[in-house]
Amino acid sequence: MKRGTWGDDPEELFALSTNGVIRTATLLRHGVAGGTIAGRCRKGGPWQRVLPGVVALHNGPLSVLQRNTAALLYGGDSALISGHAALGIHGYTNSATKSEVLLLIPHTQHRRNFSFVAVERSWRIPEPIIKGTLRIAPVDRCLLDAARRMSQLDPCRALLASGIQRGDVTVDDLAHELRAGSCRGSAVPRTVVRELSHDAHSVAEIAAQKLYATSGLPPMAHNVDVETDDGTWIARPDGWLDSVAVAWEIDSLKYHFSPKAHETTLVRRAAMQRNGIIVVSHLPRQIRDNPAAVLADLEAAYHQGTQRPRPPVRSRAD
After folding, report:
1. Would you tell me how many other CB atoms lie within 10 Å of the CB of residue 61?
2. Does pLDDT of 6 surpass 80?
3. What pLDDT is stored for residue 257 in this prediction?
4. For labeling, which of 53, 99, 126, 206 is most exposed (least CB within 10 Å)?
5. pTM metric for this prediction
6. How far apart are the C-alpha atoms of 230 and 262, rounded to whole Å?
7. Which residues are registered as beta bridge partners of 311?
């Protein structure tokens, strides 16, 4: 594109951009004068400066895609997106609403935090995952990078548990990434990963385990497979009192009550009851708002179990 001719073909100029966002250096290299760029980016002009050295070829609000694109252009060819911004691209809907874009750059480079971009220099730049025109970190890195910026336990529990619930990561994946990463901001996620390592796969189950520990009832196993005495698998309840064959189910609406998952829950519960297992079920809000009633239900189920012959079922050995 010759100097002074770019205005004859705006589409050609847009084609040089990525999602309507372009580096100033690219504009200069293709014949757009510095004064022209400055003029078109003034208030009321047709373009806008988004970040240092990065211009959007329109003057309206930026889309999420354009914000992420601008961050990568600002960071350079080795940069990639992590944290909540990348989790939103991975499909985590709660993270998609966050405004900050966390940008990872190699430790040898220098960029400053600017506007909506938070920059982290790292010795450990992971192999990027390519999503369209964007370079993002793997899910385990994104989860821990976001978690290190959290100061409260419950949101951190919800975030890390969501990764496990989706099947994107295991507790071991999170523990490995936590060990390998920066110690800065790691206190809260370390606490949560320790909790999750006890086989609690949702925030609701963690709260349930904490409540049960106050009950005075015999120790409860969590997320164990239950089978008949001849080895036929029955179910994997959230909690299991083996001595009296009592199962505890935490019916999280978010994780379990899609139509298909709801049907699976009913089938599993019927299988347990058909084999003589006493099933107690609660919603997460009952555990949070009425813990005394939950404990009373568990105590009643335990005493009911002691009053009837124990059915021929057992927890499956590892």
Report:
1. 9
2. no
3. 44
4. 99
5. 0.69
6. 28
7. none
